[in-house]
Amino acid sequence: MDIWSLEMLNKATLNWFIKLSYKNLICERKNFKMKKIIAILLSLVFVVSMSLTVMAANNFVSSPSGRPAPNIISFKPADEECTARIIVTGYGDSDQLPEELKALMEKAYNEIISAEDLAKLNDEFAKYLKSLKIDSSNLAISDLFDLRVEDCNFHDSHVDFEIVLEPETLKNFVGLLHMNKDGEWEFINNAEVVANGKHLKFSVESLSPFAIVVDTSGGQTGDSGMIAVYAIIMVVSAAALVVVLVKAKKNSIAE
Asked: Residue 120 gets which letter from DSSP?
């Protein structure tokens, strides 16, 4: 074999090697990208499914940390000369509370998430549910927040408060629970939804954490729309994962 022929053979071999290496590199990149896409989709499906499970299992409609505190519409102490102002603190901002109230808020939260049945938190509440034939297994908490008064220069203690709040939602409202200073749950039997379903009006003798109870059996509790969105995302992600896997299999067979 002459030098020219050997040279041509070397060039052909080199070109073949370069093309093969390039093809392998492209395949590796495709496989890497495919694996990355699959990992992302699997993570998304896992996170969304776990989020839905947690929402359904911890007796809250959604995470109380993400909810804004209700707005105060009106606050009327029993004594009209009282100068106090009322402070509303959502669970997500409970670190701003005095230590005693912060501990009480955490106690309320822990008892809610650990309750097998929210009706068991208070006997009077359980009787109320029974009288209305409400299935307590469908109950959940839509809001957990603390109420307290400040800047009162007239009283050492207060007797009665008439309060009107505007929570984020009052759809399917069932009742209002209150954890008193002794760490026991009370049922506020005078709580009522007013102003065309926008406001919650009630009277109490003391302030601390409150929990709004709703019925989730109707599927319209304010956050049900978001839960539906999460469910759709999970289904779409799962479908996309199947498409990617089928395509990857076809490409590997073709190659």
From this structure: G
